[in-house]
UniProtKB/TrEMBL annotation:
Top class in the EC scheme: isomerase
Cofactor binding, per record: Binds 1 Mg(2+) ion per subunit.
InterPro entries tied to this protein: A-D-PHexomutase_a/b/a-I (IPR005844), A-D-PHexomutase_a/b/a-I/II/III (IPR016055), A-D-PHexomutase_C (IPR005843), A-D-PHexomutase_C_sf (IPR036900), AMG1_II (IPR049023), AMG1_III (IPR049022), PAGM (IPR016657)
Domain Alpha-D-phosphohexomutase C-terminal: start-end pairs: 479-530
Reactions catalysed according to its record: N-acetyl-alpha-D-glucosamine 1-phosphate = N-acetyl-D-glucosamine 6-phosphate
GO MF: metal ion binding; phosphoacetylglucosamine mutase activity
Annotated metabolic or biological route of this protein: Nucleotide-sugar biosynthesis; UDP-N-acetyl-alpha-D-glucosamine biosynthesis; N-acetyl-alpha-D-glucosamine 1-phosphate from alpha-D-glucosamine 6-phosphate (route I): step 2/2
Protein name: Phosphoacetylglucosamine mutase
Residues of the active site: 69 (phosphoserine intermediate)
Taxonomic path: Eukaryota, Metazoa, Ecdysozoa, Arthropoda, Hexapoda
Reported cofactor(s): Mg(2+)
Stated role: Catalyzes the conversion of GlcNAc-6-P into GlcNAc-1-P during the synthesis of uridine diphosphate/UDP-GlcNAc, a sugar nucleotide critical to multiple glycosylation pathways including protein N- and O-glycosylation. Catalyzes the conversion of GlcNAc-6-P into GlcNAc-1-P during the synthesis of uridine diphosphate/UDP-GlcNAc, which is a biosynthetic precursor of chitin and also supplies the amino sugars for N-linked oligosaccharides of glycoproteins.
Length: 548
C-alpha cells in the first residue's frame, strides 16, 4: 500500500496526463515513437520510470529525450538514457512497455510492483536530465516528463532544445566528471575545442576545401551548428541550409534519412557540383555526406563510408604511435553495403562484426574492441575507445619520440572530438572534416576508396510484422516458412545479389533490402522480394509491383 502522498500522485496523473487511447505501444529500437497526440501519458509514466531507474543506479542521473528523430513533424517519442550515456538497458524495455500500457486505474499497483521487482530504494535521491527536439509538441511532453519525475520526488533538470547526443553527453558527464562538463556549453567546449586544437596541428592542404554545406533537416542539429559556426574562427566555413525558417518543415524532403533512403539530394540546399554537403537528421544523431556531380547526379557518402574513413585514419595514427597491440574493429548491420564490408576486410584488413539493427547492439559489440568503430549505413555511429587505449596513447604522447608524440597527440584530440556515448552528427562532422583535411582530400578522392553496390530499400505492409522472425544478425529469416527459400531463389538469379527482410522496430512495416550489380537489378530484386513478403507473410493493401 503506497503512502498517501503517492495516492495524490496517481490521482494527479489521471487528471493531468490521462491515458486516452487503448492502442498498444512498445518500447522499441528508439524508445516509444508514435503520433505525438498519443504520447502524453507515456512520457509522464517514463518520468516515473526514470526516477526508479536512477534509484536503482544509486541515484546516478538518467536522461529522457523527447524526440522522434527523422520522423515527420506530427510524430514524437521518448527514450531513456542510462548513466554512462548509453541506451536504456534492454531488460528495462519490457518494464517500460508494461508501465506505458496499463490503465490509469492500474498505474498505482503496477508502479508498486515495478518498485519491488527492480528493488528500487525509494529513500534515495534521484536525478533526471530532460531534453527535447524542435517539434511543436515537445514542450508539452517535456512538461509531462517533469511532472512524472517530480511525482516520485526525483529532481528534474531541463535542458530545453538540444540534440539527442548533447543530452547523452551531459548525462555521461554528470555521472563521470572526467568526461567533461554536463552542460550544452561544456559540450561545445570539449568538441569544438578539440577540433580547433587539431586544426592548429594540421594545416589545410591539398585538395581539401574548408567550405562545407550543411542540410540541417529543419531540426535542432542545424540550430546548434549555427551557434558553433560563430566560434570556428574560419577553421571551417559552414554554409547552413534548412534551419527551420522560411516554412521549411522538419525532415520533409530533407535530412539524412530522406537523402539515404530516397537517394536524392534534399530540397532547400543549393546545388554546386562537387561541393561537399553534410545532411543531418531531425535530432542531430545521424549524418551522411553527398555531392552532386556535373550531370547533377547525387553521389552519397553514407555511414559505411564514414566508418571506413574513420577506421582507416585511426589505424594510420596508431601506426604513427608505433602501437601494435590494440585491436581496432568495425561494427556494421546487414544494411551495410557489401562493397564496404569487402573493402574493410580485404583492403583495410580490419575485422568486422555484423549485428542486429539498432544502435544499442552496435555500441555493445564495439565495446569488445580496444577501439570500436560502429556505424549504421544510415549515418548513425561513433567510435569508442577502451581505457587501455586511452592510457596507452597518453603514454606515447608523453614518452614517444617526436613523430610518435605527434601522432599520439593528434589521436588524443581525435578521441576528445568523439562523442563516445552515441552517434552524434556534430561530432561525426568534425571527425570527417579532420580526416579529409589531414589527407588533403576532396569529396571525389574520398569517394574513390571503393564503389558501392547499387541498392534499394522498400517497405511492405503486412497484417502482423512480428510474424517475420530472423536470425544471423537479421540476414536470414526463419519464419514464415519458405520465405527465406524464396528470397534465396530470387537472389541466386542476380550478379552480386543480396537481399534480406526484417520487421521494423520503429514503424508498423516490414523492411526489404536488396543490392546487385546494377541499379535496375537492385530495384527489381527488392520489388520481387517485396512480393514474396506480401504473398507469404500476410500482405495488406496493394500487392507490390515489379516494373519491367
Ligand atoms: C534500416 C534503418 O535505417 N533502420 C533504422 C530504424 O530502425 P527500424 O527498426 O529499421 O525501423 O530506426 C532506428 C532508430 O533510429 C535505427 O537505428 C535503424 O537503423
Ligand atoms: Mg536521429
Amino acid at each position: 500500500m503506497p503512502p498517501s502522498s503517492l495516492r495524490v500522485v496517481y490521482a494527479f496523473a489521471r487528471e493531468m496526463h490521462p491515458k486516452t487511447t487503448d492502442i498498444f505501444i512498445q518500447y522499441g529500437t528508439a524508445g516509444f515513437r508514435t503520433k505525438a497526440s498519443l504520447l502524453e501519458h507515456v512520457v509522464y509514466r517514463m518520468g516515473l520510470l526514470a526516477v526508479l531507474r536512477s534509484r536503482c543506479k544509486n541515484g546516478r542521473t538518467i536522461g529522457m529525450m523527447i524526440t522522434a528523430s527523422h520522423n515527420l513533424e506530427p510524430d514524437n517519442g521518448v527514450k531513456l538514457i542510462d548513466p554512462d550515456g548509453e541506451m536504456l538497458e534492454e531488460s528495462w524495455e519490457e518494464i517500460a512497455t508494461r508501465l506505458a500500457n496499463v490503465s490509469d486505474n492500474d498505474l498505482e499497483s503496477t508502479t508498486e510492483q515495478i518498485i519491488k521487482q527492480v528493488n528500487a530504494d525509494m529513500a534515495l535521491k534521484a536525478s533526471v536530465y530532460i531534453g527535447m527536439d524542435t517539434r511543436y509538441t515537445s514542450p508539452r511532453l517535456a512538461a509531462a516528463a517533469v511532472h512524472g519525475v517530480m511525482a516520485l520526488k526525483g529532481t528534474a533538470k531541463e535542458f530545453g532544445i538540444v540534440t539527442t547526443p548533447i543530452l547523452h553527453f551531459c548525462v555521461k558527464c554528470r555521472n563521470d566528471n572526467t568526461y567533461g562538463t554536463p552542460t550544452e556549453e561544456g559540450y561545445y567546449e570539449k568538441i569544438v575545442g578539440a577540433f580547433k586544437s587539431i586544426r592548429q596541428k594540421l594545416p589545410v592542404c591539398g585538395n581539401y576545401n574548408t567550405t562545407l554545406y550543411v542540410d540541417g533537416a529543419n531540426g535542432v542539429g542545424g540550430k546548434k551548428l549555427n551557434i558553433i559556426k560563430k566560434t570556428l574562427d574560419g577553421e571551417l566555413d559552414l554554409v547552413l541550409y534548412n534551419l527551420g525558417g522560411n516554412g521549411g518543415k522538419l525532415n520533409l524532403n530533407c535530412g539524412a534519412d530522406f537523402v539515404k533512403v530516397s537517394q536524392k539530394p534534399p530540397v532547400g540546399v543549393e546545388h554546386v557540383p562537387y561541393q561537399r554537403v553534410a545532411s543531418l537528421d531531425g535530432d542531430g544523431d545521424r549524418i551522411v555526406y553527398y555531392y552532386v556531380d556535373e550531370s547533377n547526379n547525387m553521389q552519397l557518402l553514407d555511414g559505411d563510408r564514414i566508418a571506413t574513413l574513420l577506421a582507416s585514419y585511426v589505424t594510420e595514427l596508431l601506426k604513427g604511435c608505433d602501437v601494435t597491440d590494440l585491436r581496432l574493429g568495425l561494427v556494421q548491420t546487414a544494411y551495410a553495403n557489401g562493397a564496404s564490408t569487402k573493402y574493410i576486410t580485404e583492403d583495410l584488413k580490419v575485422p568486422v562484426t555484423c549485428v542486429k539493427t539498432g544502435v544499442k547492439h552496435l555500441h555493445h559489440a564495439a565495446l569488445s574492441y580496444d577501439i570500436g568503430v560502429y556505424f549504421e549505413a544510415n549515418g548513425h555511429g561513433t567510435v569508442v575507445y577502451s581505457d587501455v587505449t586511452k592510457n596507452t596513447i597518453a603514454k606515447v604522447a608523453q614518452e614517444g619520440d617526436t613523430e610518435q608524440r605527434k601522432a599520439a597527440q593528434l589521436l588524443l584530440s581525435f578521441i576528445d572530438l568523439t562523442n563516445e556515448t552515441v552517434g552524434d552528427a556534430i561530432s561525426d562532422l568534425f571527425l570527417v572534416e579532420t580526416v579529409l583535411c589531414a589527407r588533403g582530400h576532396d569529396v571525389r578522392q574520398w569517394m574513390e576508396t571503393y564503389n558501392d553496390l547499387p541498392c534499394r530499400q522498400l517497405k511492405v505492409t503486412v497484417e502482423d510484422r512480428n510474424a517475420i522472425k530472423t536470425t544471423d544478425a537479421e540476414r536470414k529469416c526463419t519464419s514464415p516458412e519458405s520465405l527465406q527459400e524464396r528470397v534465396d531463389a530470387l537472389v541466386s538469379t542476380y550478379t552480386c545479389g543480396r537481399a534480406f527482410v526484417r520487421p521494423s522496430g520503429t514503424e508498423d512495416i516490414v523492411r526489404v533490402y536488396a543490392e546487385a550489380d546494377t541499379q535496375e537489378s537492385a530495384d527489381k530484386l527488392a520489388a520481387e522480394v517485396s512480393q514474396a513478403v506480401y504473398d507469404l507473410a500476410g500482405g495488406v493493401g496493394d500487392r507490390p509491383t515489379v516494373s519491367a
